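Example S7 (C-alpha coordinates).
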Protein backbone atom coordinates (compact mmCIF):
# COMPACT_ATOMS: atom_id res chain seq x y z
CA UNK A 1 0.00 0.00 0.00
CA UNK A 2 1.35 3.41 -0.93
CA UNK A 3 2.08 5.61 2.06
CA UNK A 4 0.48 8.45 0.10
CA UNK A 5 -2.75 7.43 1.82
CA UNK A 6 -1.36 7.33 5.37
CA UNK A 7 -2.00 10.50 7.35
CA UNK A 8 -0.42 11.98 10.45
CA UNK A 9 -2.62 13.49 13.12
CA UNK A 10 -1.27 16.95 12.31
CA UNK A 11 -2.18 16.51 8.63
CA UNK A 12 -5.68 15.45 9.64
CA UNK A 13 -6.07 18.40 11.97
CA UNK A 14 -4.94 20.84 9.26
CA UNK A 15 -7.41 19.35 6.78
CA UNK A 16 -10.16 19.53 9.39
CA UNK A 17 -9.44 23.24 9.96
CA UNK A 18 -9.74 23.83 6.22
CA UNK A 19 -13.03 21.94 6.00
CA UNK A 20 -14.40 23.73 9.06
CA UNK A 21 -13.69 27.08 7.41
CA UNK A 22 -16.46 26.14 4.96
CA UNK A 23 -18.81 24.07 7.13
CA UNK A 24 -19.25 23.00 10.76
CA UNK A 25 -18.57 19.51 12.04
CA UNK A 26 -21.49 17.17 11.42
CA UNK A 27 -23.20 15.57 14.43
CA UNK A 28 -22.75 12.04 15.72
CA UNK A 29 -25.75 10.90 17.73
CA UNK A 30 -26.88 7.79 19.58
CA UNK A 31 -30.52 7.15 18.64
CA UNK A 32 -32.24 4.94 21.28
CA UNK A 33 -34.81 3.36 18.96
CA UNK A 34 -32.11 2.36 16.48
CA UNK A 35 -30.03 0.95 19.32
CA UNK A 36 -32.98 -1.09 20.55
CA UNK A 37 -33.40 -2.61 17.10
CA UNK A 38 -29.69 -3.39 16.87
CA UNK A 39 -29.19 -4.57 20.45
CA UNK A 40 -26.12 -2.35 20.68
CA UNK A 41 -25.06 1.25 21.23
CA UNK A 42 -25.12 2.73 17.74
CA UNK A 43 -23.55 6.07 16.84
CA UNK A 44 -24.82 7.57 13.58
CA UNK A 45 -22.40 9.96 11.87
CA UNK A 46 -24.66 12.38 10.02
CA UNK A 47 -22.83 13.21 6.82
CA UNK A 48 -26.27 13.89 5.34
CA UNK A 49 -26.00 17.23 7.22
CA UNK A 50 -23.24 18.81 5.09
CA UNK A 51 -23.89 21.70 2.65
CA UNK A 52 -24.11 19.18 -0.22
CA UNK A 53 -25.98 16.53 1.74
CA UNK A 54 -23.08 14.06 1.63
CA UNK A 55 -19.57 13.45 2.96
CA UNK A 56 -17.88 14.03 -0.40
CA UNK A 57 -17.81 17.81 0.07
CA UNK A 58 -14.85 17.39 2.42
CA UNK A 59 -12.66 15.79 -0.23
CA UNK A 60 -13.60 18.38 -2.81
CA UNK A 61 -12.63 21.25 -0.53
CA UNK A 62 -9.19 19.80 0.24
CA UNK A 63 -8.52 18.71 -3.35
CA UNK A 64 -9.44 22.08 -4.83
CA UNK A 65 -7.42 23.93 -2.19
CA UNK A 66 -4.34 21.88 -3.08
CA UNK A 67 -4.99 22.38 -6.81
CA UNK A 68 -5.29 26.15 -6.34
CA UNK A 69 -1.99 26.27 -4.42
CA UNK A 70 -0.18 24.08 -6.95
CA UNK A 71 -0.24 26.78 -9.66
CA UNK A 72 -0.98 24.25 -12.41
CA UNK A 73 -2.85 26.94 -14.32
CA UNK A 74 -5.99 24.90 -14.96
CA UNK A 75 -8.71 26.83 -16.78
CA UNK A 76 -11.32 24.46 -15.43
CA UNK A 77 -11.89 21.05 -13.88
CA UNK A 78 -13.80 18.01 -15.07
CA UNK A 79 -14.87 14.80 -13.35
CA UNK A 80 -17.35 11.93 -13.50
CA UNK A 81 -19.84 11.06 -10.81
CA UNK A 82 -23.17 9.57 -9.82
CA UNK A 83 -23.83 12.80 -7.94
CA UNK A 84 -22.24 13.40 -4.55
CA UNK A 85 -18.63 13.65 -5.77
CA UNK A 86 -19.84 15.94 -8.55
CA UNK A 87 -21.63 18.26 -6.14
CA UNK A 88 -18.48 18.39 -4.04
CA UNK A 89 -16.24 19.35 -6.97
CA UNK A 90 -18.74 21.84 -8.41
CA UNK A 91 -19.11 23.65 -5.09
CA UNK A 92 -15.39 23.61 -4.30
CA UNK A 93 -14.46 24.77 -7.81
CA UNK A 94 -16.81 27.71 -7.45
CA UNK A 95 -15.02 28.83 -4.28
CA UNK A 96 -11.70 28.88 -6.16
CA UNK A 97 -13.07 30.60 -9.27
CA UNK A 98 -12.72 27.62 -11.61
CA UNK A 99 -15.35 26.38 -14.05
CA UNK A 100 -16.49 22.80 -13.55
CA UNK A 101 -17.73 20.19 -16.00
CA UNK A 102 -19.42 17.08 -14.58
CA UNK A 103 -20.11 13.86 -16.50
CA UNK A 104 -22.96 11.62 -15.34
CA UNK A 105 -24.46 8.51 -16.95
CA UNK A 106 -27.85 8.64 -18.63
CA UNK A 107 -30.66 8.01 -16.15
CA UNK A 108 -28.74 9.57 -13.26
CA UNK A 109 -30.56 11.04 -10.27
CA UNK A 110 -32.64 13.98 -11.47
CA UNK A 111 -32.29 15.82 -8.18
CA UNK A 112 -28.53 15.27 -7.89
CA UNK A 113 -28.17 16.55 -11.45
CA UNK A 114 -30.17 19.66 -10.55
CA UNK A 115 -28.01 20.26 -7.47
CA UNK A 116 -24.80 20.05 -9.50
CA UNK A 117 -26.14 22.60 -11.98
CA UNK A 118 -27.16 24.83 -9.08
CA UNK A 119 -23.58 24.75 -7.80
CA UNK A 120 -22.49 26.08 -11.21
CA UNK A 121 -21.46 22.94 -13.08
CA UNK A 122 -21.77 22.27 -16.79
CA UNK A 123 -23.49 18.89 -16.67
CA UNK A 124 -23.10 16.35 -19.48
CA UNK A 125 -24.92 13.01 -19.61
CA UNK A 126 -22.98 10.20 -21.26
CA UNK A 127 -22.93 6.41 -21.17
CA UNK A 128 -24.84 3.71 -19.40
CA UNK A 129 -22.98 3.84 -16.09
CA UNK A 130 -20.31 5.66 -14.08
CA UNK A 131 -17.40 3.93 -15.78
CA UNK A 132 -18.52 4.98 -19.26
CA UNK A 133 -19.08 8.55 -18.03
CA UNK A 134 -15.58 8.50 -16.53
CA UNK A 135 -14.02 7.45 -19.85
CA UNK A 136 -15.78 10.31 -21.63
CA UNK A 137 -14.65 12.77 -18.95
CA UNK A 138 -11.05 11.73 -19.56
CA UNK A 139 -11.50 12.24 -23.30
CA UNK A 140 -12.99 15.70 -22.82
CA UNK A 141 -10.27 16.65 -20.36
CA UNK A 142 -7.68 16.05 -23.05
CA UNK A 143 -9.71 17.66 -25.83
CA UNK A 144 -10.60 20.81 -23.88
CA UNK A 145 -7.49 21.25 -21.73
CA UNK A 146 -9.31 20.68 -18.44
CA UNK A 147 -7.89 19.29 -15.22
CA UNK A 148 -9.34 15.82 -14.62
CA UNK A 149 -10.35 15.30 -11.00
CA UNK A 150 -10.21 11.58 -10.19
CA UNK A 151 -12.70 9.77 -8.00
CA UNK A 152 -9.91 8.50 -5.75
CA UNK A 153 -6.85 10.51 -4.77
CA UNK A 154 -4.79 11.20 -1.62
CA UNK A 155 -6.23 14.73 -1.31
CA UNK A 156 -9.79 13.38 -1.53
CA UNK A 157 -9.00 10.77 1.12
CA UNK A 158 -7.42 13.41 3.35
CA UNK A 159 -10.52 15.57 3.05
CA UNK A 160 -13.09 12.90 3.80
CA UNK A 161 -10.92 11.56 6.64
CA UNK A 162 -11.97 14.67 8.55
CA UNK A 163 -15.39 13.14 9.21
CA UNK A 164 -13.65 10.15 10.75
CA UNK A 165 -11.54 12.38 12.99
CA UNK A 166 -14.73 14.13 14.12
CA UNK A 167 -16.42 10.81 14.87
CA UNK A 168 -13.52 9.20 16.70
CA UNK A 169 -12.89 12.26 18.87
CA UNK A 170 -16.58 12.74 19.69
CA UNK A 171 -17.08 9.27 21.18
CA UNK A 172 -15.45 6.75 23.46
CA UNK A 173 -13.60 4.09 21.41
CA UNK A 174 -15.93 2.19 19.10
CA UNK A 175 -15.73 -1.56 18.55
CA UNK A 176 -16.51 -1.23 14.84
CA UNK A 177 -17.61 1.29 12.23
CA UNK A 178 -19.62 0.33 9.15
CA UNK A 179 -19.13 2.41 6.00
CA UNK A 180 -20.43 2.14 2.43
CA UNK A 181 -17.92 1.80 -0.40
CA UNK A 182 -18.19 3.40 -3.82
CA UNK A 183 -14.76 4.27 -5.19
CA UNK A 184 -13.27 4.00 -1.70
CA UNK A 185 -12.43 7.45 -0.32
CA UNK A 186 -14.82 7.16 2.63
CA UNK A 187 -13.51 3.87 3.98
CA UNK A 188 -9.92 4.92 3.24
CA UNK A 189 -10.44 8.07 5.30
CA UNK A 190 -11.77 6.04 8.21
CA UNK A 191 -8.79 3.70 8.07
CA UNK A 192 -6.34 6.61 7.91
CA UNK A 193 -7.92 8.41 10.87
CA UNK A 194 -8.21 5.21 12.91
CA UNK A 195 -4.52 4.52 12.33
CA UNK A 196 -3.43 8.11 13.04
CA UNK A 197 -5.23 7.99 16.39
CA UNK A 198 -3.87 4.54 17.26
CA UNK A 199 -7.33 3.04 17.78
CA UNK A 200 -8.30 -0.64 17.55
CA UNK A 201 -11.70 0.00 15.97
CA UNK A 202 -12.57 -2.45 13.21
CA UNK A 203 -13.51 -0.82 9.91
CA UNK A 204 -16.13 -2.81 8.03
CA UNK A 205 -16.91 -1.90 4.44
CA UNK A 206 -20.31 -2.34 2.83
CA UNK A 207 -21.24 -3.01 -0.79
CA UNK A 208 -24.44 -3.90 -2.59
CA UNK A 209 -24.98 -7.49 -3.69
CA UNK A 210 -25.82 -6.05 -7.10
CA UNK A 211 -22.47 -4.19 -7.26
CA UNK A 212 -20.00 -6.61 -5.67
CA UNK A 213 -16.73 -5.61 -7.40
CA UNK A 214 -15.05 -4.27 -4.26
CA UNK A 215 -16.06 -7.33 -2.23
CA UNK A 216 -14.82 -9.67 -4.96
CA UNK A 217 -11.54 -7.75 -5.12
CA UNK A 218 -11.14 -7.83 -1.33
CA UNK A 219 -11.70 -11.59 -1.28
CA UNK A 220 -9.38 -12.26 -4.23
CA UNK A 221 -6.58 -9.93 -3.11
CA UNK A 222 -6.54 -8.27 -6.55
CA UNK A 223 -8.78 -5.98 -8.57
CA UNK A 224 -11.80 -7.82 -9.95
CA UNK A 225 -14.10 -5.85 -12.28
CA UNK A 226 -17.73 -6.73 -12.99
CA UNK A 227 -19.88 -6.20 -16.07
CA UNK A 228 -22.55 -4.25 -14.22
CA UNK A 229 -23.33 -2.49 -10.97
CA UNK A 230 -27.12 -2.42 -11.09
CA UNK A 231 -28.02 -1.16 -7.62
CA UNK A 232 -30.46 1.62 -6.82
CA UNK A 233 -27.90 2.72 -4.21
CA UNK A 234 -26.01 4.70 -6.84
CA UNK A 235 -23.28 5.80 -4.42
CA UNK A 236 -22.06 2.18 -4.37
CA UNK A 237 -22.48 1.47 -8.11
CA UNK A 238 -18.82 0.66 -8.83
CA UNK A 239 -17.86 -2.07 -11.29
CA UNK A 240 -14.12 -1.31 -11.61
CA UNK A 241 -12.39 -0.67 -8.26
CA UNK A 242 -9.34 1.58 -8.02
CA UNK A 243 -6.15 -0.42 -7.34
CA UNK A 244 -4.90 2.08 -4.75
CA UNK A 245 -8.21 1.94 -2.91
CA UNK A 246 -8.10 -1.83 -2.83
CA UNK A 247 -4.59 -1.66 -1.37
CA UNK A 248 -5.79 0.54 1.47
CA UNK A 249 -8.93 -1.53 2.05
CA UNK A 250 -7.09 -4.84 1.85
CA UNK A 251 -4.70 -3.86 4.61
CA UNK A 252 -6.99 -1.78 6.77
CA UNK A 253 -10.52 -3.22 6.66
CA UNK A 254 -11.64 -6.09 8.87
CA UNK A 255 -14.27 -7.30 6.43
CA UNK A 256 -16.70 -6.33 3.69
CA UNK A 257 -20.38 -7.08 4.12
CA UNK A 258 -22.76 -7.39 1.18
CA UNK A 259 -26.34 -6.17 1.46
CA UNK A 260 -29.31 -6.81 -0.81
CA UNK A 261 -31.49 -4.16 -2.41
CA UNK A 262 -34.29 -5.15 -0.03
CA UNK A 263 -32.01 -4.77 3.00
CA UNK A 264 -30.95 -1.32 1.83
CA UNK A 265 -34.58 -0.23 1.43
CA UNK A 266 -35.42 -1.67 4.87
CA UNK A 267 -32.56 0.32 6.40
CA UNK A 268 -33.75 3.53 4.72
CA UNK A 269 -37.15 2.99 6.32
CA UNK A 270 -35.62 2.14 9.68
CA UNK A 271 -33.47 5.27 9.74
CA UNK A 272 -36.51 7.37 8.90
CA UNK A 273 -38.58 5.72 11.62
CA UNK A 274 -35.94 5.78 14.34
CA UNK A 275 -34.07 9.03 13.59
CA UNK A 276 -36.36 10.90 11.15
CA UNK A 277 -33.41 11.38 8.83
CA UNK A 278 -33.57 10.76 5.10
CA UNK A 279 -30.82 8.44 3.86
CA UNK A 280 -30.05 7.68 0.24
CA UNK A 281 -29.38 4.03 -0.59
CA UNK A 282 -25.65 4.17 0.03
CA UNK A 283 -26.26 6.25 3.13
CA UNK A 284 -28.42 3.51 4.63
CA UNK A 285 -26.18 0.62 3.58
CA UNK A 286 -23.97 0.82 6.67
CA UNK A 287 -27.01 0.42 8.90
CA UNK A 288 -28.22 -2.51 6.80
CA UNK A 289 -24.84 -4.22 7.15
CA UNK A 290 -24.60 -3.56 10.87
CA UNK A 291 -27.97 -5.21 11.44
CA UNK A 292 -27.04 -8.41 9.54
CA UNK A 293 -23.40 -8.71 10.66
CA UNK A 294 -22.87 -11.71 12.92
CA UNK A 295 -19.98 -10.02 14.75
CA UNK A 296 -22.48 -7.58 16.31
CA UNK A 297 -22.90 -8.48 19.99
CA UNK A 298 -25.11 -7.16 22.80
CA UNK A 299 -23.37 -4.24 24.42
CA UNK A 300 -21.18 -3.46 21.40
CA UNK A 301 -20.39 0.18 20.66
CA UNK A 302 -20.83 0.61 16.91
CA UNK A 303 -20.67 3.42 14.41
CA UNK A 304 -22.55 3.68 11.13
CA UNK A 305 -21.80 6.29 8.49
CA UNK A 306 -24.95 7.89 7.10
CA UNK A 307 -22.91 9.05 4.14
CA UNK A 308 -25.59 11.04 2.34
CA UNK A 309 -29.25 11.89 2.09
CA UNK A 310 -29.51 12.82 -1.60
CA UNK A 311 -32.32 10.56 -2.72
CA UNK A 312 -34.88 11.60 -5.33
CA UNK A 313 -38.38 12.16 -3.98
CA UNK A 314 -40.06 9.45 -6.13
CA UNK A 315 -37.48 6.91 -4.95
CA UNK A 316 -37.94 7.81 -1.30
CA UNK A 317 -41.72 7.72 -1.73
CA UNK A 318 -41.47 4.13 -3.01
CA UNK A 319 -39.24 3.15 -0.11
CA UNK A 320 -41.55 4.67 2.49
CA UNK A 321 -44.46 2.86 0.82
CA UNK A 322 -42.69 -0.42 1.52
CA UNK A 323 -41.27 -1.02 -1.94
CA UNK A 324 -37.74 -1.71 -3.15
CA UNK A 325 -36.83 0.58 -6.07
CA UNK A 326 -35.83 -1.13 -9.31
CA UNK A 327 -32.86 -0.03 -11.41
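Recovered sequence:
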Amino acid sequence: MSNRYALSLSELEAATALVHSQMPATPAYVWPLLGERAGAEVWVKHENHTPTGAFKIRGGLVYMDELARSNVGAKGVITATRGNHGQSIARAAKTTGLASTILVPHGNSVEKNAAMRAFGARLIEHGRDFDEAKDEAARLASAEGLHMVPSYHPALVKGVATYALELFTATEPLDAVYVPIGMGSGISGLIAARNALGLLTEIIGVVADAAPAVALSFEAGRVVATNSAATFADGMACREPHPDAMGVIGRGAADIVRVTEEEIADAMRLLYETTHNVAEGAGAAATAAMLKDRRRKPGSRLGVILSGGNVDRPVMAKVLAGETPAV
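Notes on this example. Residues 57-148 form a domain with the Rossmann fold fold (CATH 3.40.50.1100).
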